[in-house]
Amino acid sequence: MKIRAVIVEDSRLARNELKELIKLHDDLDLIGEAENVDNGVELIQSERPDLLFLDINMPEKDGFELLEMLDEVPITVFTTAYDEYAIKSFEYNALDYLLKPVSEKRFGLALEKVRAQMESRNNQSKAKKLTEGSQIFIKDGESCWLVKVGDIALFEIVGNYTRVYFSDEKPLLYKSLNQIEEKLPEESFFRANRQQIVNTNFVEGVVPWFNGKLKLTLTNGEEVEVSRRQSYIFKDRMSL
């Protein structure tokens, strides 16, 4: 199981030290780094990593402010040169706290905690997964539906709601797309971009699009643009 990690740290030296430690562990995959909070938030929201190595003391905004800006927080390990932040860090549910400079042994102990947390999350996620035959209840205004998950072609963000496409209906569900994605069967549903999840069983056309992206046409006539990063994953998954 690969653990997808990002680093948010203003010091280039500290980032390089962490990258060298990460290289020692085959199950860690560094997918990005940022040198300030705003870039870090953008990175986390776009890549949705499993693990965040986060510096606390950064210019303008600190690591605690970054966590408060996120809707969904990855497993977080704080890194800092100032140990007085330790108590406060655990108020933010950090998994661990690493004091710079970080030793190989101390990094390894933190990673053991990360692995245990990942295993726990995966087991919980599997227990909650829906199947294509599962039914979900949707109420939009005065209308109600009991819909099979496998009959849903598309989920799409609309403000604070998610629009659900099935048959000729498009009701709104008061749940976030991330909440929905966690429960969907991975074999048939695919996160095309930050706004949409498609049921691959409803894809009837795939064409190359701009900047390495793909454009999907669904059997209901809806068109979905797959982000560049997700396009690579989609091609591999569909053996294109």
UniProtKB/TrEMBL annotation:
* Record has Repressor as a keyword: no
Task: Kindly list the positions at which 4-aspartylphosphate occurs in this protein.
Answer: D55
Check the record and name the InterPro entries matching this protein: CheY-like_superfamily, LytR-like, LytTR_DNA-bd_dom, Sig_transdc_resp-reg_receiver
Q: What PROSITE patterns does the entry give?
A: HTH_LYTTR, RESPONSE_REGULATORY
Q: Which GO terms describe its molecular function?
A: DNA binding; phosphorelay response regulator activity
Keyword DNA-binding on entry:
yes
Domain Response regulatory residue range list: 4-115
Question: Cross-referenced Pfam families, in alphabetical order?
Answer: LytTR (PF04397), Response_reg (PF00072)
Which keywords does this Swiss-Prot/TrEMBL entry list? DNA-binding, Phosphoprotein
Q: Using the record's annotation, list all stretches that form the HTH LytTR-type domain.
A: 136-240
Q: Which PANTHER family match?
A: STAGE 0 SPORULATION PROTEIN A HOMOLOG (PTHR37299:SF1), TRANSCRIPTIONAL REGULATOR-RELATED (PTHR37299)
Could you tell me what this protein is called?
DNA-binding response regulator
Q: From which organism does this entry originate?
A: Flagellimonas pelagia
